[in-house]
Amino acid sequence: MKALVIDIDGTLTDEQRQLDLRTAAVIRELTVPVILASGNVLGFVKCAAKLIGTSDIMIAENGGVVSMGFDGPVHISGDKARCQEVLGILGEHFNLEELDGLERRSELALRRNFDIDAARQMLVDGNIRGIELVDTGFAVHIKTVDVNKGTALVEVAKLMGLDTGDFVAIGDSANDIEMIRAAGLGVAVGNAHPALKDVADLVTTGKYGAGVLEALKDSRLYTC
Amino acid sequence: MKALVIDIDGTLTDEQRQLDLRTAAVIRELTVPVILASGNVLGFVKCAAKLIGTSDIMIAENGGVVSMGFDGPVHISGDKARCQEVLGILGEHFNLEELDGLERRSELALRRNFDIDAARQMLVDGNIRGIELVDTGFAVHIKTVDVNKGTALVEVAKLMGLDTGDFVAIGDSANDIEMIRAAGLGVAVGNAHPALKDVADLVTTGKYGAGVLEALKDSRLYTC
């Protein structure tokens, strides 16, 4: 395995979203490039990359934003305007609170305080296609179905001169499914969503950062 | 001392901007509220607050943005439009590269690849008042002079029901001067800019995170 792509919240952090400091120290020692892949906005991922000491190549907004350098070129996909239309439709029936509205470039994020399944049913009933609601456990995202962390991994791998099969991918949430599937070794940490565990090559016993350490050892990215 | 307000880059991080993990562990153990105060954008500070485990009250953009909760109300001061006018004037003479343009709400940040003193002289010669260029060592900020981390600390203290004198403040850069002055105990870490050391109550021997640990022990915020 030649590189690692890894989710932040719930994977490198615990349920309170605090960084596992022991795991961060190990990540910092790895000799392969480490790509952070998050549903959060680029500003958040940039901070995590600097603080932890990972690569300047970053995946944000569930794959809708790929940054090829810390202050480098940013590739945006998805369709924020279409997501905003859908927000308008759902907002007629649910009391929705948008998060990080200013910073989001490819999709929208909402506070997790509404009936997500009822909202999904409304999209089905309204024949609204091409848009999905993804619950990461930290926020609900309104995004286009054509963009995800898996499509972003394909993009990043190509730009790095690698194949997606060269990557170990580690995550915990439903928004990690396509990335875990695309990678050579897809890992779900012990606290992961059942749907992610179903598609993972490896499910760790340890949760959160402890699960990451386990995966790094099992994949031989970390051999100490 | 009842609270801590602390800079991120060059204070909690090293010269490569990597978090001092040992210091982060100590910060996480403190019993007083810890407020992060950065020149960076709010998305960056929010990430640092979550990963380290500090308060949801945050100071970003050199005091121009104060957030009173993680996804809570944000108070914006400064005058971004005026900063943009000045950027236009300076841009006629220098090759300037704006950073985080989309995310900034109160001021501007530029890559540190131009003659800052020459640009400052141009502001003086052009009789452009009320605007200053602040070099944090990580970026050059174009900001209004009426807003800084010190004015933000006044605001935060008031909202927390505290006095600025109740705060220990720790920083490393010229943009920390007013905050260090406003606090009850103002600390410059060993790697700090000479202008900050000049106004500090305490200058630590240790640099970066090691200096922070020294200050936490000296101020008795950390007693283990």
Give the key terms.
homodimer, 224 residues, Rossmann fold, Hypothetical Protein Ta0175, Chain: A, domain 2, 2 domains, 8-stranded mixed β-sheet, 4-stranded antiparallel β-sheet, 8 helices, 20% strand
Structure notes:
The structure is a homodimer of 224-residue chains. Chain A is an alpha/beta fold. Chain A has two domains: 3-76 and 147-222, HAD superfamily/HAD-like (Rossmann fold); 86-144, Hypothetical Protein Ta0175, Chain: A, domain 2 (Alpha-Beta Complex). Helix content of chain A is 34%, strand content 20%. Chain A is built from eight helices and twelve strands. Chain A has an eight-stranded mixed sheet with strand order 5-4-3-2-1-10-11-12, sandwiched between helices. The first copy, chain A, has a four-stranded antiparallel sheet with strand order 6-7-9-8. In chain A, strand 3 (57-60) and strand 4 (65-68) form a beta hairpin. The mean pLDDT of chain A is 95. Chains A and B meet through helix 1 and helix 2 of A and helix 1 and helix 2 of B.
